[in-house]
Amino acid sequence: MSHHLVEFRDVYYSYPDGTLALDGVSFRVLHGESVGIVGANGAGKSTLLLHINGTITPSKGSVTIGDVQINAKNKQDIRKKVGVVFQNPDDQLFMSTVFEDVAFGPLNLGFSKDKIMDVTTGALSQVGCLELKDRAPHHISNGQKSRVAIATVLAMSPDILVMDEPAANLDPKSRRFLINLLRNFYHTKIIASHDLDLILDVCQRCIVIKKGKIAADKPAMELLSDSKLLEENNLELPLTLQRR
Fold first, then answer.
1. pLDDT at 67 (0 to 100)
2. Of 4, 50, 133, 183, which residue is least crowded by CB atoms under 10 Å?
3. In the Cβ-directed half-sphere of 97, how many Cα atoms lie within 13 Å?
4. CA 85, 91, 97 angle in degrees (round to 5)?
5. Averaged over 200-211, what is the pLDDT?
6. Which pairing describes strands 6-14 and 60-65: parallel, antiparallel, or unpaired?
7. Rounded to an integer, what distance in angstroms lies between the CA atom of residue 151 and that of residue 89?
8. pLDDT at position 3, please?
9. pLDDT at 205
10. Which pLDDT value is given to residue 1?
């Protein structure tokens, strides 16, 4: 079985206050698939993503990466395979310089000094931010922070890339750069976003989450052109389809 595979089997998750965030979620993502996760605010998208690298674990059911079911003992190993880019890049950038932030993961994996230099420089170059390597993260723009946050994940060479609202607060140029970057990441991608045009551009498949359940799971173009389905889930047609 491919180590790029992600499978949710009848996953339930309740927060400590009793709120049911995931209600029997089951789906499978195969090697190389690009899958968009969409839904209204509070539908359960971010909770779902946090299960993929073991940040949280199901109250009931299972999440499997490849042939390994995530649990408390193996989640550190899972995080070597699954790279997560959070909605707020400040959650991932905490070192004194951009270079140190991107090098943090490889350093903790025990990479040699030369390899850390290579993968960190390569990841920063890939997102177009090598010239920022000596800058303090809190002194760069929101768009640059988002790109550096992506570099912190790419430096780990993940098999699976998970992103939560990656285009939030990006200007049009940075957003287009992000879309091109994602198109060139050929491993498995799972992206939650309210930017349905980005999902349409990047993802082959789309899953709608509604009140913690899967409301639809279809090819992206088919799902995102279904105005009735989108309206039922407090979503609108992507702008590119509205113009047709």
1. 86
2. 183
3. 12
4. 95
5. 96
6. antiparallel
7. 11
8. 60
9. 97
10. 41
**HEC profile of the chain:** CCCCCEEEEEEEEECCCCCEEEEEEEEEECCCCEEEEECCCCCCHHHHHHHHCCCCCCCEEEEEECCEECCCCCHHHHHHHEEEECCCHHHCCCCCCHHHHHHHHHHHCCCCHHHHHHHHHHHHHHCCCHHHCCCCHHHCCHHHHHHHHHHHHHCCCCCEEEEECCCCCCCHHHHHHHHHHHHCCCCEEEEECCCHHHHHHHCCEEEEEECCEEEEEEEHHHHHCCHHHHHHCCCCCCHHHHCC
Mean pLDDT on 48-63: 94
Dist CA 72 CA 70 (whole Å): 7
Instruction: Indicate the pLDDT class of residue 69, thresholds 50, 70 and 90.
Output: very high
Confidence of residue 241 (pLDDT cuts 50, 70, 90): confident
* Entry pTM: 0.90
Residue listed under structure tokens 């912190």:
152
- Name the percent of the chain lying above pLDDT 70: 98
How far are the Cα atoms of 17, 46, 95, 140, 157 from residue 161, in angstroms, in the given order?
30, 14, 22, 24, 9
Report in angstroms the alpha-carbon separations of 101 from 122, 123, 167. Answer: 14, 11, 20
Buried b (16+ CB within 10 A) or exposed e, 169-207: ebeeebbebbbebbeebebbbbbbbbbbbbbbbbbebbb
For 84-95, the pLDDT digits (tens) are 998 888 888 999
